[in-house]
């Protein structure tokens, strides 16, 4: 469990205010932190990571003090068991993908584990490539697995889907949720909108007027629409269906275990509730 009660003076929405965060995070939770631009979301992540020093307060991780202003304790980011994915990816351009992972892993490198990260992110053929030769989605995947190189227990992501098209966002959402479950992580994802991971996160915390406020998960009936399968692409971990619906073309990732149920040209129904999407053959 992480206990956080910290304050930091900063400009919020153009005015000098105090960012005050008071919350507890349970191990294994997936939490979306959202709010307007300039609300203090990134500052909160940076304080949790040890990159920005709070003015006062305390941060405890599993009863270990990470920060305490009263006793002047401030554990470094290296000693906080954190993986951080920055909004701009912050990859080293003069290092290959694998070299980026090795640098992040530090002295005690587990080479089999690093190659395993490349495999689960479908980047095993990109290990010797440099970041400037990768697509936006590939760079973001490298940034995510680089954050995992030290085998952290806490994963912090700052707007990880920015500047990506809808199809790549959907693909990364599937991969991110699998990574969260596979490594038994506690994950905090910063977003302008909770719709990024709507339906999949455990909790949604809004930062507004310098304070954090929890929003209950919204339940809605969702909706369905008919579509036709134009193409089926197989990846190592899921299928990517290309569909046409209402004259629009969309791409949806689905579980590989249902591959035999679908074929090109088949009519299907797409059921959507938040970001929970299911596709079934249209029996009508």
Q: Which spans have pLDDT < 50 for at least 5 consecutive residues?
A: none
Shape: globular
Number of helices: 5
Helical proportion? 10-25%
Looking at the overall shape, the CATH architecture of the largest domain is 3-Layer(aba) Sandwich
CATH topology of the largest domain, what is it called? Rossmann fold
Rg of Cα set: 20 Å
**Average predicted local confidence, pLDDT:** 83
CATH class of the largest domain: Alpha Beta
Q: Number of domains in the coordinates?
A: 2
Largest sheet: 6 strands, mixed
Number of strands: 16
Strand content: 35-45%
Multimerization state: single chain
What does this structure look like?
The structure is a single chain. This protein has helices spanning 41-49, 97-105, 111-120, 136-147, 166-182; strands at residues 2-12, 15-25, 30-34, 56-61, 64-68, 73-74, 82-85, 154-158, 186-191, 203-208, 211-215, 223-234, 238-245, 248-255, 267-273, 276-281. The N and C termini lie far apart (50 Å). It has 284 residues and is α+β, with helices and mostly antiparallel strands. It contains 5 helices and 16 strands. It folds into 2 domains: 2-215, P-loop containing nucleotide triphosphate hydrolases (Rossmann fold); 223-281, OB fold (Dihydrolipoamide Acetyltransferase, E2P) (Beta Barrel). β15 and β16 form a beta hairpin.
